[in-house]
Amino acid sequence: METTLDLRSITAQEAERLVAGALGSYGIPAAEATLELIKHRENFVYRLRVPGCPDLAVRLHRPGLHNDEEIHAEMAFLGAAAARGIMVPRVLPTLDGRLFVSELDRFGRSVQIDLQEWITESTTLGSIDEGLFGTSTLGPEDFRNLGATIARLHVLAEELGPEAGAGRSAWDSEGLTGAAPLWGDPLAGSVLDASQRVLLRTALDRAGRKLEEHGKAPDRYGAIHADFTPENVLTSPDGLRVIDFDDFGPGYFLFDLVTALFFFQPHPEYPAYREALLRGYGSVRELPPEHLELWDTLRLARGASYLGWAAARDGQDDARFIFENVLPLVLRLAADYAKDSPTLISETVSTTDELLARRFATVGRHSPLFYAQPIALASAEGVWLTDTEGRRYLDGYNNVPHVGHCNPRVVAAACAQAKVLNLHSRYLNEPMVAYAEKLLSCFPAPLDKVFFTNSGSESNELALRIARQHTGARGVLVSDFSYHGNTSSLAELTTGLITREGLGEHVRPIRIPDLEHAGGLAEDELTADALAEVDAAIDSLRAAGIGLSAVLFDPLFSTEGLNRVPRGYVAGLADRVHAAGGMVIADEVQSGFGRSGDAMWGFELHGIVPDLATLGKPMGNGHPLGGVVTTAALLDEFGSHNMYFNTFAGSPVSAATGLAVLQEMEDRSLMANAGDLGADIQLRLRELASASPAAGAVKGRGLFFGVEIVRPDGSPWAEGAKAVIEHMKANGVLVSRIGPDDNVLKMRPPMVIGRTETDLLLEAFGAALRHLDNAA
Asked: Which of 342, 426, 514, 516 is the right S-S partner for 697, CB 3.0 to 4.6 Å?
């Protein structure tokens, strides 16, 4: 099977003209040749007759699928196979030694034409229909021979190495289960309902992770045929001959075996066919048991590829055949595959409206949801989210899945530990201690002790408690637009959200200076003015008899709108707090774990070391895990006066999860990735902003970045920011907004995002800006 419909725009008359024009390169007079059209599904295939010469096969490849380099790779592989006695079509070179001819069609596209020997006295091994309907009369011996034939091709592929399929589309995890599968989106068929899309997406996401884990070692991955249907194998007196290498490319060797049997699964002899196929393959080339573990994964992926092929041709007879006869089989495969997944899949899936009504009936209407029309999510992987309708979204917002949604290493670590031991911290266990050691190794001296918690809110609550007890004071400095958690104590110092508690009488909000809005002041003047406000706030607490216990701030000042603070401000703030007897608490929930790309922790960006650093969200990649990192002196002081323990914090499963996050960061150099991508993102955001009157200052660093959306007079434009977010969502990219005026776009993707995905994000942002400009 092939994938696109581009060739259908070429008429039969034009195709024959192009072929006739190419014949001269082979020394064949077009006037003496007769062309008989044999097949036109997508490629044109002709039987060429010339008086006094053996008949030949002519293929005119559909435009746009393969370039000349890719066609050459296919022809070269066929030549190498024929040279080794493998029965494949023999390619005829042109008079000057080329393996094919390129002509231009009326659209100016390159169209490749090649000649091969015409195979006589042969018939197809069988048909798809005979396999699906159980009417095939093939015996096990036929499949044993087929297995041996496939193995001989794989021996050749392994011998030739990666060069054999160089440049061809790859049948790997991305090509089979990713965002843009080679044969089309399997979820796009109009006959699929919401629950079927969720089932398929969930199963395919798991299959993709399995393929990634399997790897691409040369004994299991190389050049493959990729379309071993029974129609693409001919029987002849000399044995089996393989034809139609149009989908040839790099892939899993096992994929060819799965494909050879796929349409025979309903056949009563399927078990015998499979045993014979594997036995025949094993007679030529070793097939280790661990490779066969991928059978069900590739069987699902193969089936999904047929659904994608049909979806691209919805309404055509071939597509109807696939949906009627193959879709039920693939849905059964997906259901069986998903049963082995730790993900719970409901037997029924609500529509978005139904799910929203159920949520309102249980959770109420006051828990906020993103977007004018909320998204009902079903699954996620890496930087991609999938809703209940099967639509995929690029996650440009969430920092909770720090090392990617459903990260295989993190999931495996949590599951493995849960099967062995999970209880609270009052029992000695290795995972908790090992994680504490690894985590603390990421901090500068004298931060060498850790309290574990379950969330950022718990972490900040505990840090404030430690500060109050150490200083004997209650006063807290926070920014004038911030959020640090949802406990009662934190609600009293929340300035960025509505809380009924209101601002506590012991709290003093301070303005965080922003060089983008300096009001004409020079940097040193802006710093001096802001620090004078800090002095006044401290004096106010002292005058009220409250005193200062701590300042609590996010080093990236994210809720505030990613303010670009002047140099020396944060250090000056810390110095003044210490001079007043207070403690410095750095809330690293947003800025920590390498997100800035320049430092592991946000406080390091300002050249300070806090007394306490609080951790949350990204620490466990979605698992509830938090912490307070401090000094030995503070931990001992607090611990000697309080019997502090936390039932779930630091459990073996939590520790194993957190350790896996750190290992992923280290092994994949994710902080460096944030730095490299962040520098490019800043440049490109500035380019986009310079071209749009609605774009103001570019904010952030690393993989936490944003842009102010402004009116023509430069004033904040909240509705404009909302319109950009909704436009990006409609185009499959999720972001949000922040800032006191709700006009700063908030883009904070998982740290595993790559350049391809950031390109998509920036393209979507650019399109949204243009749409906003045109609508204004």
From this structure: 516
